[in-house]
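Input.
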Amino acid sequence: MTNISEVYLYALIPVVSILIGGLTGLFTTPNGAFRSAVLHFAGGVVFSVVAVELLPDIIKNHKPLEVGIGFGLGIITMVLVKYFAEKIESKEEENKTSNALPMGLLIALGIDLVIDGLLLGVGFAAGNTEGILLSVALALETFALGLAVILALSTSNISAKKNIIILSILGFCFFIGATLGITFLSSLSQEWLELVLSFGLAALLFLVTEELLTEAHEEKETLLQTAMFFVGFLIFLIIGMIA
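Output.
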């Protein structure tokens, strides 16, 4: 059984990963092909964890009412986050200055990372294997997000120190969500846990289809980059079978 201190260490993995992703973009010049490959791979990994770990746990409990409510709330939440983030971004485009931060993107990512942190708590509430695999999957996601953030901030003409501070704040958002999830979700009843798992399922599917893959497709793709999605899925499918 994974103890609580080890759970918090697993929660730190995605936090460190977003910093590494950001520093990769800050101190190197990654091309679009590399970013697309990372986003495809991360999407495959997250989708694999959903299919192999979360979905079977949700189905075996046979609680369709809780699943319907949780899944519906998850979709509504993610759609609203995307809607308001796009509204903020459209206003920023009208009043663009050289040093303006992309606040719409940063706010949306902050909320998304809090939700991702909660999902890590969901994973450990469902079981240690689920939690550990989800920690690794979310680390790959946050690496891609950290890289994307730095690329988005490159037009704002801010210092490397401020870039690192922004990345640290985003990482802290994830850790806050993880702390809340680890603290409160472990004591939920089966009905409430099913609802939260379904919420997390919807949020992760939204993340893969509307964020990771959408951003990946902004670049001109090769067959190798497309194949990275399936490589990520296969690797974590096998790990889930033998773990």
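The longest helix spans residues 64-94.
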